[in-house]
Write a structure and sequence with these properties.
The structure holds two protein chains of two kinds. Chain A contains four helices and twelve strands. Chain A is α+β, with helices and mostly antiparallel strands. In chain B, helix 2 packs across helix 3, helix 2 packs parallel to helix 4 and helix 3 packs across helix 4. The chains are: A alpha+beta, B mainly alpha.
């Protein structure tokens, strides 16, 4: 059948017309993308100017007590060298501090409180800002979501995506950066202490 | 306010204002998303492909010379990302036993409804070979010429015509009996 005949085919024309209906990108698509773009551009500038990223820090992250146990278990599985200390016995957030060597992979447990959410995922430079790779799961504590992520030493930017669309920085993060586009992104420094 | 032209936005981005890239993203994201959703048959997959494509374009901006043709270049990247993702997904799916029969028997509640019909069409589209689906969408949905399609896919025009022809036959066959 020729191109002309193809075009004249009424059935195909009808199908094509339906398929041409608008299919807008997700409402937060530009925000998510620009967070990565700005982070990359910022990193490029930082590398050029030997920025503050080179400072070493102690890891501080929010952690539920139950989560701490899980994190500790996974830490053993990953044979992480370092020290773990957990405080707090009832409500989150407790704190965990990790000491590290440069070649260590850390398992960091992120806990996020979102009682009304039906889904929470995490995006960050460590997963290419892909909202499908790192979903959080509900924990035993009401409204609490959590995930454990293996991270190499260094600073990592991240945010949570609530219900697939709402970009939310981590309220428990020690550092939040706002890029030129106005997007707030949380920062965690892993393995900074030595 | 007149929108800035693509080459001016690109110049701004490369001049140290990466936030200007958002203008290009907003300008092209919906059209690219439509192709990705139709091609991949899944909005999350499409989102992933789109994000990779826009990032790839951003990273390649400094080396991109023909700035007037940013849209065409970006679309080419989107098509490539979608193809890569579809191939990866096909390999993954091949590990499972599929039962499309069950899906075929699923009742359509409102056959006359455009949404239900679109879902049927999407299902039929999903069953085409990747190359045929891509060629069909570029020709009949994006309404590109065979020359433009050839430029995007790197495939010869006669091969593309054959793919479109087979895609049309495949769709007709699969959609027979579904709402005339």
């Amino acid at each position: 059948m020729s191109e002309h005949e193809d075009r004249d085919d009424g059935r195909i024309r009808e199908v094509a017309e339906l398929l041409r209906a608008a299919e807008p990108a997700a409402p937060d698509f530009t925000t998510r993308l620009m967070a990565i773009v700005n982070a990359e551009a910022g990193r490029a500038m930082a590398q050029r100017s030997r920025s503050w990223w080179r400072r070493r820090r102690t890891v501080q992250l929010s952690l539920s007590p139950l989560g701490a146990l899980a994190a500790a278990a996974v830490l053993v599985a990953f044979a992480v060298l370092g020290t773990i200390s957990v405080r707090g016995s009832s409500a989150p957030p407790a704190r965990i501090a990790l000491g590290a060597r440069a070649d260590t992979v850390h398992v960091v447990r992120f806990v996020f409180l979102a009682p009304d959410a039906s889904s929470v995922t995490m995006v960050g430079n460590f997963n290419d800002w892909n909202r499908r790779v790192t979903p959080l799961r509900r924990t035993g504590a009401a409204g609490t979501w959590a995930v454990s992520v293996p991270l190499p030493p260094g600073p990592h930017q991240y945010a949570f995506i609530v219900d697939g669309t709402t970009w939310t920085p981590d309220p428990a993060a020690a550092t939040t950066v706002t890029d030129d586009f106005g997007t707030k992104t949380s920062v965690i420094a892993v393995g900074g202490a030595s | 306010v007149e929108a800035r032209r693509d080459p001016d936005i690109i110049a701004a981005v490369l001049d140290g204002r990466p936030e200007a890239y958002a203008e290009l993203v907003d300008r092209y994201r919906d059209r690219c998303n439509r192709f990705a959703v139709r091609f991949l048959g899944d909005r999350d997959d499409a989102d992933e492909a789109l994000q990779s494509a826009f990032l790839r374009a951003f990273r390649g901006l400094a080396g991109f010379r023909d700035r007037e043709r940013f849209g065409a270049w970006l679309f080419q990247i989107v098509v490539n990302e979608c193809r890569t993702l579809a191939a990866r997904r096909a390999r993954r799916a091949a590990r499972f036993i599929r039962d499309d029969g069950l899906l075929d028997q699923a009742p359509i509640e409102h056959p006359a409804d455009r949404t239900a019909l679109l879902a049927e069409i999407q299902h039929a589209l999903d069953q085409l070979e990747i190359e045929q689906r891509e060629a069909f969408l570029l020709k009949h949905v994006e309404e590109l010429s065979y020359e433009e399609m050839s430029e995007i896919t790197g495939v010869g025009i006669s091969a593309l015509k054959m793919r479109v022809k087979r895609a049309c036959s495949g769709l007709r066959e699969r959609l027979d009996g579904v709402h005339q």
